[in-house]
Write a structure and sequence with these properties.
There is one protein chain. The chain is built from eight helices and no strands. The protein has 190 residues and is mainly α. It has two domains: 60 residues, no CATH class; 73 residues, no CATH class. Helix 5 runs antiparallel to helix 6. The longest helix has 36 residues. It is rod-shaped. It comes from Candidatus Viridilinea halotolerans.
Length: 190
């Protein structure tokens, strides 16, 4: 007696063959769920249905949860990642204007700092001051203004060449506010 091979071995095989994952639409998922739940529990036809569609019982469990949440009825399957942003032109304009206002506020603070230092510099420089004294005051003002707006902008605002500022900073310690400059101790003689 010879045994006949099944006509379609993949259909009659108890194992699911590996194939690329299929994306089921919500309508197809609901139809498979309805067909699966119409069969009695423990019926072999449930396994055959799963094999025919190439799915597992975990798919059925997940689809039941989705159906319970209303995801399958709305035909919107949540995807991984950040949800898409709704582009509202008013919100975009508001964000752009907020950024511009912040930039202008920063520029205003820088301008106020420059004007304040220029005023104090003008008050400190008397007409009969010599060149070295004025230069020292200008460099001290640049040194004070540089952390607020940057060296380039501070030098440009006060009319001091950057090379002079960098040269003075390299060859002499910056003036300390309020504390007397430290003088190096004389070296002992042998």
């Amino acid at each position: 007696m010879t045994t006949q091979a099944p006509a379609n071995p993949a259909q009659d095989s108890p194992e699911v063959t590996s194939r690329p994952a299929k994306q089921w639409t919500p309508v197809q998922r609901l139809a498979i769920l309805a067909e699966y739940e119409a069969l009695p529990k423990g019926d072999a036809r449930r396994g055959a249905l799963l094999r025919r569609h190439g799915i597992y019982s975990s798919h059925i469990a997940r689809w039941r949860i989705q159906r319970g949440r209303g995801v399958l009825e709305n035909e919107a399957i949540p995807t991984a990642g950040r949800p898409p942003q709704i582009c509202d032109p008013r919100q975009q304009e508001l964000a752009r204007l907020s950024q511009e206002a912040a930039r202008l506020q920063s520029e205003l603070q820088q301008a106020e700092a420059i004007l304040s230092i220029q005023r104090s510099l003008l008050a400190a420089c008397h007409p009969d001051a010599d060149h070295a004294e004025r230069r020292t005051l200008m460099l001290a003002s640049v040194h004070e203004l540089a952390p607020l707006i940057g060296v380039v902008a501070a030098c440009a605002a006060l009319g001091v060449p950057r090379s002079s500022f960098y040269y003075a900073r390299r060859h002499a310690p910056p003036p300390c506010s309020g504390a007397p400059a430290a003088t190096p101790a004389p070296e002992p003689e042998p």
